[in-house]
Amino acid sequence: MSATASAESTKSKRSIPVRAMGFAFREAAVPRWWFFENPIPTHISNALNLLFPDGERFFIRSVKHYMHVVENDPELLARVRGFFGQEGRHGHEHERYNKLLQEQGYDLEPFLAFYRHWAFEVLEKNTPPVLRLSATAALEHYTATMAENALKSDMLDHAHPLMRDLLRWHAAEEIEHKSVAYDVLQKVDPRWGVRAAGIALASASIVAFWILGARELLRQEAAMGTDLAAHRRAAEADPVLERERKHRTVMFRGAIADYLRRDFHPDQKDDYALARAYLERIGRLDG
Ligand SMILES: [Fe+2]
Ligand SMILES: [Fe+2]
C-alpha cells in the first residue's frame, strides 16, 4: 500500500463520535439579527437552518435503505452509525433553534409545510432509492464544502457567539462524516452517471428551497416594519460579506467540478485536521 493510500485508509477508519450539545439558545438571548447584526445575512443563514432538520432525517433514511449493503463491512457500518448519530443531533439542535425563531415572531409553519410536501412527499417518494442516496452524497459534499469555509474564514466572527458555536460544531462534524454517504454510494452503484444525476437533483433542490425559505423570512421581516433596503445597502457595503459573496460562487463552482471528476473521493481533500483542531479547542474531540 502506498503512503497516500495508507493515509486515506486511516482517515476513513477514523471514528465518528456522536456529541450531545444542548445549546442554550434562550438563555444566551440570541438576537433576531444574529449575523452581522443585519437581517439579510441572518435570514439567508436561517433559511438553511430551516432545511436542516428534515433534510438531515432524509439523509439518514436514504442511507438506511441500504443497510443490507453496509452490514457486511464493519468499518463502514461503524461510520454509518456515527453519521446517523451526528445528523440526528444536528437536526435536534437546529430544530431547537428554529423554535426560538418562532418565539421571536416568525411563522415557519407555512414554509416548512411547503418544503416537507414538495421535498419529501413528492420528490423523495417519486425518486428511486439509488438517486436519493446519490443526492444525499452530493449534499454531503456541499455541506463539507461550506463547513471547510465556515472553519477557515473569519465570517463566523460576525455571528452571535452561540450561533457561532452551533455552526462551527455542525461544520466540524460535517467534515468528520463527509465521506460516509459517498462510500455507501460507491458500494451500491459507483457509476459516474448516477453520481452526476445525484448532484444535479441535489443542486436544483437545495437552491430552490434555500431561496424560497430566505424570501419568506425576509417577507416576514419586512412585514414587521424592518427597512430591508437600508440593510441591503449596509450588507453590500460590508467588505467581509462582499468578499464571502464572491468567494461563494467560486467555491460552489469548484465543488461541482471536483465532484464530477471521475476519480473523485471526498477524502482527497484532507481537511480533517481543521475539524479536529476546532473540536479539540472546545474539548469535544472524542465525544
Ligand atoms: Fe449535519
Ligand atoms: Fe452531513
Report on the architecture of this protein.
This protein has helices at about 5-10, 40-65, 65-70, 75-105, 110-125, 130-150, 160-175, 180-190, 190-225, 230-235, 240-260, 270-280. By secondary structure, the chain is mostly helical. It has one domain: Ribonucleotide Reductase, subunit A (Orthogonal Bundle). Helix 2 (about 40-65) runs antiparallel to helix 4, helix 6 (about 130-150) runs antiparallel to helix 8 and helix 7 crosses helix 12. Residues about 1-15 have low confidence and may be disordered.
| CA-based gyration radius | 19 Å
CATH architecture: Orthogonal Bundle
CATH topology: Ribonucleotide Reductase, subunit A
Which of globular, elongated, flat, extended, rod-shaped describes the shape? globular
Number of strands: 0
Bound molecules: fe (ii) ion
Major sheet: none
Flag low-confidence runs. Answer: 1-13
Record keyword descriptors for this entry.
single chain, 287 residues, mainly alpha, Ribonucleotide Reductase, subunit A, 72% helix, globular, binds fe (ii) ion
Summarize the structure.
With 287 residues, the protein is mostly helical. It contains twelve helices and no strands.
